[in-house]
Specification:
The protein is mainly alpha-helical and about 725 residues long. The protein contains 33 helices and seven strands. It has a five-stranded mixed sheet with strand order 4-3-5-7-6.
């Protein structure tokens, strides 16, 4: 097993008051720099200082994460095979294509090798550029070959430094979004500080470097910043077009680098639909964003050779349905409250019916099954019946796909992030609810500028978007722990911008009759400054201690296995085993695989289930026939799976296989009455006894404390 060890050695009646108060507040701010010659000079200096801080904070975060990665693994000192093994599971698979492109004699041969690959899945030739999101590996390999850096920088360092460099863009984008929402760069600094001090819950890039989300999330953060700017009222036409272009480019790059892009962007589209329906943002801008989402995804689809998972995505069906329903239903935003509410419910019904109808037609026409495992998982997760489906249970039994643990909120509260987030969320949600009710009751109250109205409480469109975005992704994170990395960074943005926003403080101050422009200004700046001081005082020593803690990569069993494969098996040998281990086999040895961790293909999922019968209760001849049908020459058995104790009984891999095969599960579990005792012992246990039924089909050729490698006979 892989491990690390210590190294050796408010408007309407009050609307005018709010407006006047805001003007007074702005005037007060402009009086602060008494030595400045003019407002323009002060604005320029503030923008320059804020931009410089954003650049420095992003760069420092990048260096910080890269240092943690080095300190944890002693990456600069370990062997190349150990570096590659440190790219665990699917990370190793993706990095192998970067390595493959660099080892190709020419770029064209490398490109064709990816388009006609017959080593990732034995006895099949697949187009990896269509199946997987690996254009980033292709792009980096081209850059490395073209740039004059080969003498100064190893390929692996060029790769990981690029990923850590993207984290600088990520933090700068979070900083910018917070700045745009609050009007002061101080909130951006607070957002970046929270991102770093809550690193355990905001990123995992330092130990899963090549993971697709680490490529994609920086572009998603840029997209949110661009959407926030685009939704501002009274933008100049050129600024609006440039913002929309930035949304398109960032959406395209985000979608190109992560296979789950469609589900994330679908959630964003639902946010836009909700706000548009409640008149909390301009309908024209919402329509343009729907179009940009479709265009970005279709461009990715074209680059991925008409990837079926994209064509059959709910996002494209939903966005087309929203645009079509708007054309079909006229005068949606007229009438009294009950009239509007009825029209809104009818509109929602029409959009949902059109979405599922269109999506069903596309999937049946193209015979698409790429994402059916995700819907099976969701159906079982939310209680729509128990399932014995192997693929769905693989996800259900993983901690990462379970509910968000409560101790997450304890950690976030220690840095005051969660406390500030709840405070800002309550106030902003109150304003949004009041604005939505007012818009539904009196559509004429909505201003032409795109703000939410002239009532007692107001909410800017960009703030309304970030509010609902945060709520939507928060619900996603609560239901699925792995998705917290989409929520917690935005939580930093939303909480920091709220603390620095005059609109946030105006409402509670007026509620207790203590409102004044000066008091508002003091609170707006005192709260983030005090929070920054608290965070720095409490967590700076911990950050320094973390940077001084030195460990090293240590996995001698896997290193021994990879070295043995390289030295004792032919280059054309085909290996079967767990998909996590085989990704490392592909990267370290270049051997052909029967299966791998990229699970977004129905035939591969069926193949993986068949290969995993090595951990089920099956006879030797049956397992041999299955493995040989995939061309396997060798099979690797892992004691950590065969005798697994990490998962609870009923969730171990062998239990999931028994359940799918209709066999009773071993151990203290309540078996369903229709399950039966297996006719054969567990293969991975029985084969180690070297009994004749097994030795006739399998010959042990390698063994250490973790792995057992058997060669399959060819003449059976």
């Amino acid at each position: 097993m892989t491990s690390v060890r210590l190294r050796k050695g408010l408007q309407n009646a009050e609307g005018s008051e709010d407006g006047a108060a805001h003007e007074d507040h702005v005037k007060l701010e402009h009086k602060l720099p008494s030595g400045c010659a003019s407002r323009r000079l002060w604005k320029t200096l503030s923008f320059t200082l804020g931009g410089t801080i954003a650049f420095c904070v992003g760069l420092l975060t990048s260096v910080y994460l890269a240092t943690l990665h080095e300190n944890d693994l002693w990456f600069s000192n370990i062997k190349e095979v150990e570096r590659e093994i440190s790219f665990r599971t699917e990370c190793g698979l993706y990095y192998s294509y970067y390595k493959q492109m660099l080892q190709a004699p020419t770029l064209m041969q490398g490109f064709l090798g990816l388009m006609y690959d017959n080593k990732t899945e034995s006895m099949r030739t697949i187009n990896l550029l269509q199946r997987m999101n690996i254009y980033q590996e292709v792009f980096l390999s081209i850059l490395y070959r073209v740039l004059p850096i080969q003498k100064y920088l190893e390929p692996v360092y060029f790769y990981i430094y690029t990923l850590f460099g993207l984290q600088a863009i990520y933090v700068a984008a979070l900083y910018t979004t917070s700045w745009l929402l609050s009007g002061t760069w101080l909130s951006g600094l607070l957002a970046a500080s929270w991102y770093v001090t809550n690193r355990i819950d905001t990123t995992r890039v330092e130990f899963t470097v090549p993971l697709r989300e680490n490529w994609a999330l920086p572009f998603f953060a840029v997209q949110i910043a661009a959407v926030t700017y685009f939704l501002r009222p009274n933008l100049q036409p050129l600024s609006e077009r440039l913002a929309l272009l930035a949304v398109f480019v960032s959406t395209f790059l985000f979608s190109l680098t992560w296979q789950f892009n469609q589900f994330v962007v679908l959630l964003q589209a639902l946010v836009l639909f909700t706000l548009d329906s409640l008149d909390l943002l301009p309908a024209l801008k919402a329509s343009r964003l729907y179009g940009v989402q479709i265009a970005g995804l279709l461009l990715v689809c074209a680059l991925q050779f008409l990837n079926s998972m994209i064509l059959g995505s709910l996002l494209i069906s939903f966005n087309l349905s929203v645009l079509a329903a708007r054309k079909l239903q006229k005068n949606l935003k007229t009438g009294n409250f009950l009239n509007r509410l009825g029209k809104l419910l009818l509109h929602l019904f029409v959009v949902l019916c059109l979405t599922f109808f269109l999506n069903n037609i596309i999937k049946k026409t193209l015979n698409l099954k790429s994402d059916e495992h995700i819907f099976k998982f969701l159906k079982a997760k939310f209680g729509f019946g128990a399932t014995r489906d192997f693929d769905a249970n693989l996800y259900l039994c993983e901690e990462a796909f379970g509910l968000l643990p409560l101790n997450t909120f304890e950690r976030l509260s220690d840095t005051l992030l969660f406390c500030a987030y709840v405070f800002v969320l309550c106030i902003t949600a109150t304003a949004a609810l009041a604005g939505a009710l007012r818009n539904l009751s009196d559509p004429a109250s909505q201003q032409s500028t795109g703000s939410t109205g002239k009532g007692a409480v107001s909410l800017k469109p960009e703030t309304a978007y970030n509010l609902v975005h945060s709520i939507a992704f928060g619900l996603l994170a609560l239901s699925t722990m792995r998705m917290k990395y989409l929520w917690t960074p935005h939580m930093c943005v939303f909480a920091s911008s709220g603390l620095c926003s005059p609109e946030t403080w105006a409402l509670p101050l007026k509620a207790v009759r203590l409102y004044s422009p000066k008091r508002l200004c003091v609170l707006r700046y005192a709260a983030p400054i005090l929070t920054l001081l608290y965070v720095s005082y409490k967590f700076w020593p911990g950050v320094m201690a973390e940077l001084s803690e030195l460990r090293e990569f240590y996995d001698p069993d896997t290193v021994e296995l990879m070295n043995w494969i390289n030295s004792n098996t032919p280059r054309t040998a085909v290996f079967a085993g767990s998909m996590q281990l085989l990704a490392g086999v592909k990267l370290c040895t270049g051997r052909t695989l029967t299966n791998h961790p990229h699970f977004e293909d129905s035939s591969l999922r069926e193949r993986t289930k068949a290969v995993y019968q090595i951990y089920a209760k099956r006879p030797a001849e049956h397992v041999h026939a299955l493995l040989r049908s995939f061309g396997a020459d060798y099979v690797i058995l892992e004691d950590s799976i065969c005798y697994e104790r990490r998962h609870r009984p009923g969730c171990r891999l062998r239990d999931l296989l028994d359940l799918a095969n209709g066999h009773m599960i071993d151990g203290p579990v309540q078996n369903d009455p229709d399950l039966k005792l297996a006719d054969h012992p567990r293969f991975c246990e029985e084969i180690k006894r070297d009994l004749p039924p097994y030795t006739a089909f399998f010959t042990r050729v390698f063994r250490n404390k973790t792995f057992h490698v058997y060669k399959l006979s060819r003449n059976k």
